[in-house]
Specification:
Layout (H helix, E strand, L loop, with lengths): L2 E5 L2 H14 L5 H21 L13 E6 L4 E6 L6 H9 L6 H10 L24 E9 L6 E6 L4 E7 L5 E8 L9 H11 L7 E5 L2 E4 L16 H12 L5 E9 L5 E8 L16 E4 L2 E4 L13 E6 L15 H21 L3 H21 L4 H7 L3 E2 L7 H7 L7 E5 L2 H4 L8 H4 L3 E4 L7 H5 L1 E2 L2 E5 L14 H14 L5 E4 L8 E4 L7 H9 L10 E4 L4 H6 L6 H14 L7 H13 L1
Parallel strand pairs: 2-8, 12-14, 16-17, 16-19, 20-22
Antiparallel strand pairs: 1-6, 2-3, 3-7, 4-5, 4-7, 5-6, 8-9, 10-11, 11-14, 12-13, 15-17, 18-19, 21-22
Length: 595
Amino acid sequence: MTEETRSFGTEVGRLLDLVVHSLYSDREIFLRELVANAADATDKRRFLSLSDETLALPGGPAVKIAVDKNARTITIADSGIGMGKEELAENLGTIARSGTAAFAASQLAAQKPEDKPSLIGQFGVGFYSAFMVADKVEVVSRKAGHDEAWEWVSDGKGTYTLKSATREDAGTTVTLHVKQDADEFLENHRIKNIIRKWADHVALPVELEEDGKYEPVTEGKALWRKAKSEVTAEEYADFYRHAGHHFDEPWATIHWRAEGTLEFSALLFIPSSKPFFPMEERRESKVRLHVKRMFITDDAKLLPDWLSFVTGVVDTEDLPLNVSRELLQATPVLDKIRKALLNRVLSELKSKAKEPESFKSFLENFGGVLKEGIYEDTGHGAEIAALLRFASTKEESTTLEDYIARMPEGQSEIYYLAGDAAHLKTSPQLEGFAEKGYEVLLLGDAIDAFWPERLGKFKDKPLTSVSKAGKLFDGGEVAPDVAALCEKLQTALGGKVSGVGVSARLKDSPAMLAAAEGGPDLAMQRLLRRAGRPIFGPAPKLEINPGHKLVQALTAREDVAEAATLLLDLARLQEGDLPEDPAAFVRHVASAIAG
């Protein structure tokens, strides 16, 4: 038996070293790559057999995996198309036949994964991930339609050998001699978990030897590849709970296949209840990306973060991948898939919004997350805003469109009040709006302090915070004693306020805070203050009610320093804030009561 020893070549040797030590972040990837190769070889034989019956697959083709703990080997066998002698040399002995030197140099220069060049998707080096866990790899292959078999052997250090061998049937057997530091991969339960994680839905069954008998490991269902008419509601629910680790029923199921210039299958779910962990702890979309049923990653960011509650699977055959399949190339294909998914989810939400009670429960669970999309994704802000429902001074729940339809003649803006939900209805900010017949939206989520200004307007109607709507109530002369009081209060409060003025909107409260011209909304200021963040822009204004008994009493006083602080603290309390100095506030109140 003649054995040939051939060299990989200097450049390929360097590249092989990079594959083993740099490209893959997780050693277990080797098994995914070898199973994928076996499945591809079987698919190729199946396709060729359509025109050549002599290449027909044997009954029950499968990828068969066996672990021999004593011999320290892992064997992966298939009944695919197989390879002849020169094909083994070409496919396994020549890596990246073009551009290898430039590729290897760029990999060596890259200090971070994101710096590595996207060109690596052009190189077929997945097989060499085997050397991450093996110090020697043997490949015995017999090409379908041929009698002879050949053996390829290498330790991955620069050379390989080729010699004739025997194999009963066509196909390929890969045997890994496991390194001393890779004992974990000699455990059947570890191998089983890897297969179920990465290859659970490949069309070709994967079997693992247990006590001398091969047992199926994979499910192979891939519901997303089936027609909707072939999948039951129970199967959808089971897959939803299995794939997303959920315990509820899906609130919405989105299953479709995109065809045309870009083809992919998608099966997405929207939960019917909040997750156990707060949404802010998982601020990224985790829709799973598959290529030809093989799991690639759940970190492809297929949907924007504001749809992070959507789970499911997308499967395509059109996506070029990089060498590790973990760092996706920034391709137009991926961008098109993202756009199509986003539009499809928005379309589903618009359809479900026609079911008021059901949609109400969805918004209770995920409305706050959805609002983040208005702030983060200005391209879809108006679409998202149209889906939302808000409490108001006139309605328990209203859309922006319905609000606009109820606007009385003369009203040109959409007014809203953002803040702590418990204090919104009693806020002095609302006094005066009812008299004008103007409805005010009551926004109680933390994100409500941010998105209205980012959206700007809806249906050409500006969104305006009531804390910035002082001009609505301007007009009228100010009595000299009240004007003098404003000056005294301003002097006493100093930089704590940007000004003190008279408000015509106050009816029952003695004073209130309002945003200064060009200053941030009061709700925004509260959030920043509670988060310990700096607040840029002018301080809020203090507006007083000249008709209130407290204010009228103060006009007769010369010294209003203590009363000014008390008035400011009262205004803060009405907005749900604490006094600046609670202990001093108590003393001021006690002093005021004592007279």
